[in-house]
């Protein structure tokens, strides 16, 4: 029985849209406050949002990356296999269609993974090999420019989130030092249409495991879906028609691409930093339209050796205190503190267990 009458439900629309522009201009103090507050609210409620990056990226740039990805995926299979994962550390290179498995089922996609390069590469060590690039002219150059842009974007969004969570300047400096040499993953994904009666998904339901995901996807609609778990009143508006739907136990909503925006979501490391205040949200891809879909998520992750643990600012919020001094006293009221995680160790465990482990294993609510 619910004690929550439907009319009192929090109103949920499609995912919130947040503009990053104030954080790109040096003097927009007011704008920053509202961006930081909007980020905080989106992270509390959804763990997913649209990031309006039109002030940072011109639309032609990711369109060109999509075109290059298409060109690669359209090559004969034998050509694509020349950079197969098996020639390196098993994590860098080309994964053929259905090689990736989620929840025990083969995903109907293919892809290329490019990870942060390491010093003294050794392909016999997990994650420690070298990237394998397609030989298509311009491919590597264009993606390397994008990677630099996404790393910089990661730091900007982290700063805005730190403001939203109420970190002091010293606390932000400490958090920044955990992400300033991101062990990122640039993934390039190709999705043929999902065959009818396919036993699985284009990409099965999962949480991202790291810090922040910046997803650029081609204009295909109705592919990426996000799971909203809270009760609420979903407001849908299209073609001037407004519909309301009560969500009782959670539901999947579409996160279609929006011009000038990327879809951004939190990985599990943010659950740890925020001591569970912010959730890493389940999502999946069901691509049933007849076109070949391309998406290029950039996973902005902590540094390999970062020790990720609950931030004092998150504990202060949970304790209902606002200053570091008063928080000390109230600490005992916080019911559960997440265990610290060394990001690189966590990632290696993930790879060994085919990405099935979670920071909260055995502890799902
Ligand atoms: O292709 C997409 O829209 C999402 C892909 C995704 O969730 C992932 O690679 O983690
Ligand atoms: Fe994902």
Short description:
With 365 residues, this protein is an alpha+beta fold. The chain has helices spanning 29-45, 60-73, 77-80, 139-165, 169-176, 268-273, 312-319, 324-330, 343-352; strands at 11-12, 17-19, 48-52, 93-95, 101-102, 105-106, 110-115, 185-191, 203-206, 212-217, 224-228, 232-238, 241-247, 251-254, 261-266, 283-285, 293-300, 307-308, 341-342.
List the ligand species.
2-oxoglutaric acid, fe (ii) ion
- How many angstroms separate the termini? 18 Å
Number of beta strands = 19
- Report Rg: 21 Å
Major β-sheet strand ordering: 2-3-15-10-17-8-7-4
SSE run: EEHEHHEEEEHHEEEEEEEEHEEEHHEH
Number of domains: 1
Average pLDDT reading? 90
The helix/strand class is: alpha+beta
Estimated share of beta-strand residues: 15-25%
Pfam families: 2OG-FeII_Oxy, DIOX_N
GO molecular function: metal ion binding; oxidoreductase activity
Domain Fe2OG dioxygenase: 182-302
Keywords: Iron, Metal-binding, Oxidoreductase
Can you characterise this structure?
The strands form five sheets. The chain has an eight-stranded mixed β-sheet with strand order 2-3-15-10-17-8-7-4. The protein has a four-stranded antiparallel β-sheet with strand order 9-16-11-14, with no helix packed on it. It is of the alpha+beta class. The model has no long low-confidence stretch (mean pLDDT 90). It has nine helices and 19 strands. It is 28% helix and 23% strand. It has a single domain (17-357), classed as Jelly Rolls (Sandwich), CATH 2.60.120.330. Helix 7 (312-319) packs across helix 8 (324-330). It has helices at 29-45, 60-73, 77-80, 139-165, 169-176, 268-273, 312-319, 324-330, 343-352; strands spanning 11-12, 17-19, 48-52, 93-95, 101-102, 105-106, 110-115, 185-191, 203-206, 212-217, 224-228, 232-238, 241-247, 251-254, 261-266, 283-285, 293-300, 307-308, 341-342. Fe (ii) ion is lined by residues 206, 208, 213, 283.
């Amino acid at each position: 029985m619910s004690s929550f009458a439907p009319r009192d439900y929090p109103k949920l629309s499609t995912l919130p849209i947040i503009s990053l522009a104030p954080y790109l201009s040096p003097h927009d103090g007011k704008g920053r406050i509202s961006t930081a507050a909007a980020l905080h609210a989106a992270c509390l409620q959804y763990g997913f949002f649209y990031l309006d990056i039109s002030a940072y990226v011109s639309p032609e740039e990711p369109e060109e990356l999509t075109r290059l990805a298409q060109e690669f995926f359209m090559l004969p299979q034998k050509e694509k296999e020349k950079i197969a994962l098996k020639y390196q550390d098993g994590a860098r290179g080309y994964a053929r269609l259905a090689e990736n498995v989620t929840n025990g089922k083969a995903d109907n996609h293919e892809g290329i993974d490019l990870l942060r390069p390491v010093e003294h590469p050794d392909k016999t060590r997990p994650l420690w090999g070298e990237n394998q690039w397609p030989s298509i002219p311009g491919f590597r150059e264009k993606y390397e420019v994008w990677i630099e842009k996404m790393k910089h974007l990661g730091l900007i969004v982290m700063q805005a989130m730190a403001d939203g969570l109420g970190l002091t300047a010293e606390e932000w400096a400490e958090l920044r030092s955990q992400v300033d040499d991101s062990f990122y993953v640039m993934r390039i994904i190709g999705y043929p249409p999902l065959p009818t009666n396919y036993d699985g998904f284009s990409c099965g339901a999962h949480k991202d495991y790291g810090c922040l995901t910046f997803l650029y996807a081609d204009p295909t609609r109705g592919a990426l879906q996000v799971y909203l778990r809270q009760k609420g009143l979903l407001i849908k508006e299209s073609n001037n028609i407004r519909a309301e739907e009560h969500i009782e136990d959670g539901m999947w909503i579409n996160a279609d691409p929006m011009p000038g925006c990327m879809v951004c979501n939190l990985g599990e490391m943010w659950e740890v930093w925020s001591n569970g205040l912010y959730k890493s949200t389940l999502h999946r891809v069901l691509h049933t339209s007849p076109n070949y879909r391309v998406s290029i998520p950039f996973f902005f992750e902590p540094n390999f050796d970062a020790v990720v643990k609950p931030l004092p600012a998150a504990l202060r919020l949970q304790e209902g205190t606002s200053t570091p001094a008063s928080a000390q006293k109230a600490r005992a009221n916080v019911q559960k503190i997440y265990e610290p995680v060394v990001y690189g160790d966590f990632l290696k465990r993930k790879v060994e267990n085919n990405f099935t482990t979670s920071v909260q294993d055995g502890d799902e609510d």
